[in-house]
Amino acid sequence: MLEVQDITMRFGGLTAVGGASLKVVPGRIVGLIGPNGAGKTTLFAIIAGFLTPTAGRVVLEGTDITGRPAHERAKLGIARTFQIVQPFAGLNVRENIAVGAYLRHAGAAEAHARAEAVARRLGLGGDLDKPASSLTVAGRKRLELARALATEPRLLLLDEVLAGLNPSEIRDIVPVIRAIRDEGITILMIEHVMQAVMNLCDEVYVLAQGEMIAEGTPREVCVDPKVIEAYLGRGAAERLKAEGARP
Q1: Measured by CB atoms within 10 angstroms of the end CB, which terminus of the chain is less buried, N or C?
Q2: What CATH architecture does domain 2-77+153-243 belong to?
């Protein structure tokens, strides 16, 4: 579905991403992991059309979309969430989600109906009339996900959707992410919660200092010496290996 081919992104003399490539097969959940400052969010911004790379290509289903702006990519079926969640504070939950629904539903009634359906799917049905600013961190994370899903994407880019959640909240949202994939939406996700990566992802890419240093199944990646040195640390790698991926 998606091919990122030798992407390089320079900001002046700083190379944020250098020759990074990855592939996402339809119907899978693919993880993108790595230390802070590795260039993961920059790569997401390039895939979504918020940044134009210095070099390289982004190909969606065989079509080069590198030069297309974000709104055109959204129409093609790419949606993303943001690491720092910023709902429209002056709108309620229904209205926030409807902002995404307007991409494919021009009428207010249709957009609001779509927003309500998505909200219920994500456990926000009881919060539709609440101000977005009143939601908890977990609620705002679900709202961010709902706004993206309201655009009816085929490829969903999740940027640390689990960040800031406690273990119980993480356990609650992991099945939601699986259900989204099971409904036919392909997912590429940046995540630091490694147990969730182990449980959710079919394949994982590892970015460090702007370069892709490893790829493979979660089990393969967590024992890769380059990944242990650059990101996991030996103790975390051994713990993940011992625990394995729980269903």
Answers
A1: C
A2: 3-Layer(aba) Sandwich (3.40)
Task: Compute the half-sphere exposure of residue 169: CA atoms within 13 Å on the CB side of its CA.
Answer: 14
Q: Which amino acid is at 77?
A: G
The model's pLDDT over 221-245, given as tens digits with 9 standing for 90+, comes to 988 888 888 886 766 656 666 665 4
For 78, 106, 127, 186, the CA distances from 152, given in Å and listed in that order, are 9, 14, 21, 12
**What is the rounded average pLDDT for all residues in the chain?**
92
* CA end-to-end distance (rounded Å), the chain: 26
Segment 172-191, tens digit of pLDDT: 999 999 999 999 999 999 99
Is residue 237 a contact partner of residue 33, using CB atoms and an 8 Å limit? no
CB 180 within 8 A of CB 149: yes
Backbone angles phi, psi at 198, to 5 degrees: -60, -40
Total-model pTM: 0.90
| Burial class (CB within 10 angstroms; exposed 0-12, middle 13-18, buried 19+) of 237 | buried
Do the beta carbons of residue 205 and residue 215 sit within 8 Å? yes
Q: Are the beta carbons of 230 and 206 closer than 8 angstroms?
A: yes
**How many C-beta atoms lie closer than 10 Å to residue 147's C-beta?**
25
